[in-house]
Amino acid sequence: MVATGRNPPAISGLRLTATLGPMTQIQFPTSPYVRERAVAEDLARQAADILLHYRRNGFEVELKTSIDDPVTPADREASELIVAGLRSAFPGDGILSEELLDSADRLGRERVWIIDPIDGTSEYVKGSPDYCVSIGLSIGGRAVLGVVLAPERSELFTGVVGEGVWKDGVPAGFSTRPPPQSIIAVSDTEYARELHQYALPNMLPSGSIALKMARIAAGEADATFTMSPRSEWDIAAGMALIAAAGGETTRRNGREIVLNSAQPHIGRGILAGRLDVVAWLTGELLRLRVPEQVHGVTPADDVWALAPEEARQGQRAGANLHLRQAGGTLVAWALARAGAGQQGAVLERLEGEAQHAGVLQKDMVRIYGPLSRG
């Protein structure tokens, strides 16, 4: 545990009260999601108050699986507030939150709220303003409503599919920049580690993926992609915002992302943004051979064909197969077995070029926790 300040008491009137405020008065007569939008915006504002309170007063940091995966009391308290508010307002809906123990109950629900109380916890811990509250509503596996609030700048992004996007209540939308001049929002971690080596123009590094997607929907950038996988709570609200603006979010190979899956961790990098920019960016990533990690590979995956026979045999024998590919070429692979009933995994094999194998192993530590050699 890394101490970064004192742990203040819960904020009176915020924790679990989820009292809806003036935003509930907004009226959108033609929208089927009037109440959902108002509730989500109100809860995002209340959660933001919690995050700013801890920022002013200090907090402690715990690590989940690694130093790259921190959690704070602010994460948990904001999650509790949002979950309580949604359960009160929409008792028939399912809920998936990064800080809530998952339940199979949500899998039987048509409507599921997908929440990240702090998307960009690492940035939050470091004192950066590049984090947000992210609340998305999925219906039938598709993102239909997204609310993203950046507390430090008091920026509120809302998207409703079929209706549009708003920033701070003002209609917004995609830019008209030609694809070669488009702004590509990328992970600051991935950029510092290796993306800076690639001749992809106009990359804009930042932290929170949900905030990147919100800014794309509002025309402040045009597309984003990741080298490492993300989880549903990272992108659900952003998916709704981008879809509301007329864009798309897919896996790096172009395959659809269906929300409220039994396994909410998306096993490979993502690609999102304005349709014409996404098409151009897809070609550039292939041409430049920008890598991506693919986790939990099975024979149903397109990258299965890249795996050597010994990797396939290991997967068939019960190990989890992890690959790193660049432009359709295998550059690293690994086999691991999760520990029985405990955090961590046994790393049975790790093969590939040193840099690529190191990146793949670091990704796996975020998935499993500590790795021991088998």
What does this structure look like?
Helix 1 (34-57) packs antiparallel against helix 2 (73-89) and helix 5 (209-217) packs parallel to helix 6. With 374 residues, the protein is of the alpha+beta class. The chain is globular and about 55 Å long. The protein has three domains: 2-169, Fructose-1,6-Bisphosphatase, Chain A, domain 1 (2-Layer Sandwich), CATH 3.30.540; 179-288, D-Maltodextrin-Binding Protein, domain 2; 293-373, no CATH class. Strand 17 and strand 18 form a beta hairpin. It has helices spanning 34-57, 73-89, 121-126, 188-193, 209-217, 232-245, 275-288, 309-316, 354-368; strands at 2-3, 60-63, 70-71, 94-97, 111-119, 132-139, 142-150, 155-160, 164-167, 170-172, 184-187, 203-206, 223-225, 248-251, 270-273, 291-295, 320-326, 329-338, 345-352, 371-373. Strands 4-5-6-7-8-9-10 form a seven-stranded mixed β-sheet, with helices on both faces. Strands 12-11-13-15-14 form a five-stranded mixed β-sheet, with helices on both faces. The relative contact order is 0.10.
